């Protein structure tokens, strides 16, 4: 028996050592005043002080020593240190993250690290992301900065961000917003020659192999501020970018250039251009009310061809007030911002998103709207604590369903691994006053939206709670299942890509169409690209609605890396509808069957 006990002791010590190795610990110096429970809390302070908790109660008082407030151990939560005659500072205490989330955990955030932070700040920011249990982080690129002259690559601060984030165990998604002037004088539009995008993405995917795992080739191309492109234009650019990314790193995740809207015209246009072989994930954004999520996500499932949905920006931001320099929300808005974090994650994950990036980690405003969960000095707002609670308690989460309950009760159920242990986690709140719920069992643990343990959750309020239930609990409750994803549509990506170019003034972004005169023949430039490694020969044929005259029936021979210009001649029929579609199909034998679908609107 002694040998058995000794053996077990050795096993337990080994397991403890593994857990300690896997644990995420704060950086030395505790940037952002973030600690984990069990640590001695000490922050700079040059005067007498008092410590106030989230509910406004004074929990400690003292006199600074050697320029610091030595506070001691604190429970999980958000606190404010008020110095006598000085400025206050916020601090956060998190539950220790004993186990990192797995590579499948859906919890992430947009950091815009390369744009928001100097190189010397980046390790601290990465540490705050890791402490919050994030798996994915999103950064931002400036193509014109990286490639100021065609072919001259200088990634500088972006190399630093890629290294720092990946070294912290975070999975990185990168995105761009504009073209360099040399690629298109209208920088908010895609490059006119898609070979420029193909080369750029090939180089970036290869450069950051092992550091940046995913790329969105463009941010919100469907709105005017980022170009106001049609679905056809987004599809052509996506195809060239995907082929470049995969040539640079075949293992990279080549995401769809992400949508800001769920506008049916643009989605239908992209779908008609058969873009699905050219994206690994179907990416979307939203800043909408929770009851709009089902319709929004349904629209993107419709174009996904079964690829995973990624929501790479989402939140329900609040307004700042008072001091223009601070741009700080008031107390109630800070609380509401924090409450909205678990609500938005729960509702989004229920709809099937496989990676959810909260917008945004850092201090960022648009007008009177404050998005960020940490301040410029990296100290937390309550919403950072809420984000960390989500990262820990919904680690590896997959939707199980939504409880059938009385009106006003919002209760989403997930298969998850909080603290590395399999469980079923319920995220619940009431949108209609206090509500009592029979949970059909006793939770193993209950936490509030800041991650603080609470006694019970029989009565729900507007404050979300997490109930950790044993595995298998949901088999005994009535639930609405999460929406089903469509079957994966298999197809090979052709290296032959077709692109139409029309003057920007003639693009109707709301109808995802090119405007053409009601009478007379129009000649639309159509470009054929060969992104393959060998020459190709094929036939193109265009077709339009009854009564239209359409001309583009040509045999094309094109070498690897070549671009050829053709003219698509169209004349509207006498009784044509205000909006019609022209379709160009190609047959290039082993090089595939490229497609170009164009929506044309009469001026």
Which descriptors apply to this entry?
603 residues, alpha+beta, 8-stranded parallel sheet, 11 helices, 22% helix, 30% strand, globular, disordered N terminus
Fraction of residues in helices?
A: 10-25%
Please state the average pLDDT score: 94
Gross geometry: globular
- Work out the strand percent: 25-35%
| Structural class by sheet pairing and helices | alpha+beta
The count of DSSP E runs of length 2 or more, i.e. the number of strands, is: 36
Spans of at least 5 consecutive residues whose pLDDT stays below 50 are 1-22
Largest sheet: 8 strands, parallel
**Number of alpha- plus pi-helical segments:** 11
Question: What's the gyration radius in Å?
Answer: 27 Å
Strand order of the largest sheet: 12-11-10-9-8-16-14-13
How many angstroms does the end-to-end distance come to?
90 Å
Describe this structure in words.
Helix content is 22%, strand content 30%. The protein is of the alpha+beta class and 603 residues long. Strands 12-11-10-9-8-16-14-13 form an 8-stranded parallel beta sheet, with helices on one face. Strand 19 and strand 20 (409-416) form a beta hairpin. Helix 6 (194-207) packs parallel to helix 7, helix 7 crosses helix 8 and helix 10 (331-350) packs parallel to helix 11. The longest helix has 21 residues, at 2-22.
């Amino acid at each position: 028996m002694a040998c058995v006990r000794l053996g077990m002791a050795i096993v337990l010590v080994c397991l403890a050592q593994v857990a300690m190795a896997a644990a995420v610990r704060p950086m030395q110096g505790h940037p952002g005043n973030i600690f984990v429970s069990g640590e001695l809390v000490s922050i700079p302070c040059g005067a007498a002080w008092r410590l106030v908790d989230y509910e406004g109660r004074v929990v400690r008082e003292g006199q600074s020593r050697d320029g610091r407030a030595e506070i001691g151990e604190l429970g999980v939560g958000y606190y404010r240190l008020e110095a006598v005659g000085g400025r206050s500072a916020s601090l956060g205490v998190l539950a220790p993250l004993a186990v990192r989330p797995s590579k499948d955990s859906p919890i992430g955030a947009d950091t815009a690290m390369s744009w928001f932070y100097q190189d010397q700040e980046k390790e601290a920011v990465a540490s705050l992301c890791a402490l919050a249990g994030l798996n994915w982080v999103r950064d931002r690129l400036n193509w014109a900065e990286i490639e100021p002259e065609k072919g001259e690559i200088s990634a500088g601060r972006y190399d630093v961000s890629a290294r720092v984030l990946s070294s912290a165990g975070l999975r990185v998604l990168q995105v761009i917003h504009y073209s360099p002037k040399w690629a298109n004088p209208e920088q908010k539009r895609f490059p006119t020659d898609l070979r420029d995008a193909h080369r750029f993405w090939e180089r970036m995917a290869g450069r950051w192999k092992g550091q940046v795992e995913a790329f969105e080739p463009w941010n919100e191309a469907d709105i005017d501020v980022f170009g106001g492109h049609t679905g056809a234009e987004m599809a052509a650019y996506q195809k060239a970018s995907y082929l470049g990314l995969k040539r640079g790193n075949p293992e990279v995740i080549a995401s769809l250039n992400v949508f800001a809207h769920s506008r049916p015209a643009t989605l239908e246009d992209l779908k008609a251009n058969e873009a699905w072989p050219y994206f690994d994930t179907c990416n979307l954004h939203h800043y909408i009310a929770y009851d709009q999520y089902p319709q929004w996500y349904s629209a993107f499932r419709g174009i996904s061809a079964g690829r995973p949905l990624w929501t790479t920006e989402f939140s329900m931001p609040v307004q700042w007030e008072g001091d223009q320099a601070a741009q700080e929300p008031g107390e109630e808005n800070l609380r509401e911002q924090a409450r909205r974090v678990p609500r938005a994650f729960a509702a989004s994950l229920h709809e099937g998103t496989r990676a959810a990036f909260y917008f945004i980690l850092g201090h960022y405003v648009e007008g009177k709207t404050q998005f960020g969960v940490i301040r410029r000095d990296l100290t937390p707002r309550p919403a950072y604590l809420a984000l960390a609670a989500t990262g820990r308690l919904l680690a590896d989460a997959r939707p199980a369903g939504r409880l059938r309950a009385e009106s006003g009760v919002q209760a989403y159920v997930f298969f998850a691994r909080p603290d590395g242990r399999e469980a079923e986690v319920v995220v619940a709140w009431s949108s209609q006053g206090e509500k009592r719920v029979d949970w059909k069992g006793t939770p193993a643990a209950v936490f509030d939206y800041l991650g603080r343990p609470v006694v019970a959750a029989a009565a729900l309020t507007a404050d979300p709670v997490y109930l950790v239930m044993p595995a298998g609990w949901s088999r005994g409750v009535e639930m609405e299942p999460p929406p089903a994803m469509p079957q994966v549509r298999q197809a090979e990506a052709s290296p032959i890509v077709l692109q139409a170019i029309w003057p920007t003034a003639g693009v109707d972004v709301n109808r995802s169409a090119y405007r053409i005169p009601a009478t007379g023949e129009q000649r639309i430039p159509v470009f054929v690209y060969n992104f393959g490694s060998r020459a190709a020969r094929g036939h193109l044929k265009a077709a339009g609605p009854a009564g239209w005259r359409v001309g583009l029936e040509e045999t094309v021979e094109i070498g690897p890396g070549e671009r050829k210009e053709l003219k698509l001649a169209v004349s509207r029929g006498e009784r044509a509808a205000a909006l019609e579609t022209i379709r160009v199909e190609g047959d290039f034998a082993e090089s595939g069957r490229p497609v170009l679908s164009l929506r044309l609107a009469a001026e």
